[in-house]
Amino acid sequence: MEKFLLILIFTLSLQSWSKADDIRDFEIEGMSIGDSLLNFADLEKIKSIKSTQQYPNDKYIIFEVDKILEVENYDYITATIKKNDSKYFITSLSGTLNYKILNECLEKKNLIQKDIENLLIYDSKEKVEYPSQRDKTGNSIIYGVQFYFKPYPSVEAITINCSHFTKESKIVKTLKVSVNSENFAFFLINEAYK
Fold first, then answer.
1. What is the CA radius of gyration of the chain?
2. Residues facing residue 163 across a β-bridge
3. How many CA atoms lie less than 13 Å away from 146 in the CB half-sphere?
């Protein structure tokens, strides 16, 4: 038995562990970019979870996936589907946690960031800090990091953001992990609010 254990340990130590290099390999609560919502619920159920909050440009539709999944790690899960896609392929996926203390959010963000760095191969990483457009005073700040999976000008990415809203804004503070396909990310940057 000891000999078998030694051989097993030796064999495992010789294997090279590889990292995933495709954004579709990153999952949130068992879902990933390119999956069909039809794999998780029937059409009637999917239609019932369409979010009441949508982008002004309705090229992509937001669904509240946490209403059909048993969620373990997040308070809310949303997925976007291209409008009129009869196969309901996921183009964007986000997991959101509410928080109260910024340092706690930043610690969680750093842990998620380390997991991504250990599990996935990405092209580049960018740390960001900017005022939220949702708070017109400019006092609410987004603290984030973005992992890009293709060279620029592609914007396909995984983002981790602590959205630190002021009390005056009356907007809930959130930690959000988002996985965005290239087409959806382009839409979000250039078309969603036009």
1. 19
2. 142, 174
3. 14
Does some domain include residue 6?
A: no
CB 159 within 8 A of CB 178: yes
Which residues lie closer than 8 Å to 171 by C-beta, 6 or more apart? 132, 134, 135, 140, 163, 165
Which of 43, 85, 38, 30 lies closest to 61 in space, CA to CA? Answer: 85
Q: Is the pTM of this model over 0.85?
A: no
pLDDT tens across 49-90, in order? 999 999 999 999 999 999 999 899 999 999 999 999 999 999
Rounded to whole angstroms, the Cα distance separating 174 from 133 reads: 15
The answer to whether position 118 is within a domain reads yes
Q: Which of 43, 83, 41 is nearest to 60 (CA)?
A: 83
From CA 161, how far away is CA 132, in angstroms rounded?
11
Question: Could you tell me if residue 18 is inside a domain?
Answer: no
13 part of a folded domain:
no
How many independent structural domains does the chain possess? 1
Q: Which residue has the tokens 């973005």?
A: 146
Q: Residues of 37-66 as b/e, b for ≥16 C-beta within 10 angstroms?
A: beebbeeeebeebeeeeebeeeebbbbbbb
